[in-house]
Protein 1
Amino acid sequence: MRFRSRRRAAKRFWAHHARTEARIRHSAAELPLFGRTGWPGRRMTGYWAFAEDGALVTAGLAHGDPGGTTTPELFVFTTRREPAQLVNDLRLGHSLPLGRFEGTMAAGPLKATQRLNLPGSEATGEITIVVDATPRVFRLWDDEEWWQAAHQLSRAHAIVLDGRLLAPADVVLGRVHDIEPYLDGHRAWIRARHRE
């Protein structure tokens, strides 16, 4: 009986996951997406946030195995939010116990009543990162383990990076036009994690 119950739960999970993938696939063209060029490891969809009217606010692509301790990770967000607010949310997430992101990036942006400004929340410097063959100046927040970088790419959206175990100067971003390899990677990561 327990086996049948597990199979039903897995079937419900994958049905929900298919609906989530369909929403990501449908909204992927609403924001320009960027990934790290030449990334040798796992690539997958990350955190996606929608406004109450259904418009895509933040789209994230993940590079690496979330939660690993010895391998590089890089999360690339395109957002309509104020980039410093997203950076603050990421930094706060890293500072909380069990605050790391499980598979689909963060648990979501903090509500205004939860938002805190961390000590040292001002950018520590600047870094030039190539985005679609054009050098761009990013504000940089560099901590002991994680670093964040943000650039206002246009009036409508910004790029925010969240990385560890790789140098910000080594990041080169390219436009992602096909979301399918990232969806496939996320699905494969879930299956490997749950040994399906």
Note: The first helix runs from residue 2 to 27.
Protein 2
Amino acid sequence: MPGALIPFDQWKAPETSVRRSLKDAFRHALAQIRAGVAPEAGAFESLDSLPELSRSKLQTLAPQPDYPKLAGALLRSLEDARSDGNAYQNVTFLVAAPFSGIRSALGFFPELEPAKIGVHGPWSVIVPPENLLVDDQGAREWWGRQDLSTPWVIPELADFWLRHLSGLALIRELLRRVAAGGLGPGVIGCSSWCWQFWSAYFQDVHFAPLTPEPLDAAGIGAWFEFHASQAGQRTVIVRMTDDGHYVLPMAEQGEGKKRKHSRYLRDLASAARGNPGVALAIWQRSLRARPEEEAQSEDPGQGVAESTKVTRFWVVPFDQLGLPIVPQTQGDNIGLVLHALLLHDGLNASSLALVTGIPEGELSFILARLARSELIEQQAAGEGWMVTALGYPSIRRHLDSWGFPVDML
């Protein structure tokens, strides 16, 4: 996964997300209709009906990040930030939007070799207690039993609280100890939604958090092209199904071979707000292939060198993709549920009922409706619910329009 760490207050959404308006989108659609001619062909035949790729093919063409490798890169970036003074004493807060991959990467810190991470001893993961409803005394006693003198990491701070009068003490006590200083090297991962709540709760303390830099069109395209080409082992060509304009490769192929490039990647960076996990989910949903081309890409035939492999795929435009949309309803119960899931980076039904005040019977109908709309999904049978990466852009937009406090990323 690409991207660097920057100070939280320096984060800015990709520029296209600011410039683009509905009128701009409409003009772009008209331009696509008028200019729907591929450079090397006459009238382009629409390929909108192509089938989606299989799950196994998606894992080859657009795989999930390698989280152990991301953990190593993340730690190197954190150590650079500390050496530059961009850290709060020994403890670094790493705030990231949902689906950024930071939580998963931090979970692999204990597997890193101590000799390569610049600290004495391996990292230990701090796991929250089963019961989050404790008083201040109980929180002090619990943290007193945790070893924070040697390198430690919390993959997700949202796991340590519930938005309830009795569910705040654990994070309050931890932040008090961090502010007081004297702890060993620590890294605290935190969802941007959880951070929005707690940074407002402790307005007088500046913890100097870091955050992943948002990806622009070039960053997203380079990431997708690297994986689709299998690290340069084959040539990958990705075009739009509606007009044949090119998405990948981003670079021109030499003199006399100018290609019309789509603005799909710019629109994708805008829709995902530079979030790699959201961009990847939309990319996977958008990809298509002709059956004969997909079969050829899997079996190029005997005598074909790896360097000559050409893989062709197609991308469905945004307006034909049908991404999940938040249903319009009376009341704010759907908003309460979605906001709570983002604040806590996922919750089970009983905890949702506790923090929202919605009876579990009524809550079950709301969860079922949101799941059918592809806005949320259950991690495993009987376990917690989480917002989906595909549904996240619509959810964030609607929570903002409904007046809920939203994150800064």
Note: The chain has three domains: 45-63+215-320, 88-207, 333-401.
Protein 3
Amino acid sequence: MNLPKKNSKNLTILFFTGYVLLMVSMIAGVTLVDLPNINEGNTVEKVNPTFEEALAAYEQQQAEKKAEQEERKWKVSNEFVMIAVTIGAVLDVIIIVIWAKTQNRKLKEAKETNKRKWLYSKVFWNIVALGVIQPKEKQLVINWYNLIGVTILIHLFFYFLFMN
């Protein structure tokens, strides 16, 4: 099929011109023609109640999950807390006494020094051991009055804190 060159050029121009006109007419038809929406009144009424129902169901599901998680938590009784605090306080005193004994042994073995150490400060021991251990004659000794007093005060504090 041998067409003259002039004819094939005209045919190409005619094809692309028709294509451009078709596209322009389709775009104009979509943008300029306003069709009435048949379901306009129904969609608004159906969407809102459906959304509200779904939202209420979701909130209820979240509340059930939260209540289930609250039930799973381990409830600690006040008596258990008192026992745990007592055990912790006893272990604290035992650890401090053992540490003080090892420090006293180290001081006996070491040479005599005139350095002022933080270890012999009453302020330090009042903060760290609540006054239970006190330095006396360059040794750490247990102050039994402070030990008994601190034990009673801590247990009274926890009693008023947890039992009321």
Note: The chain has five helices and two strands.
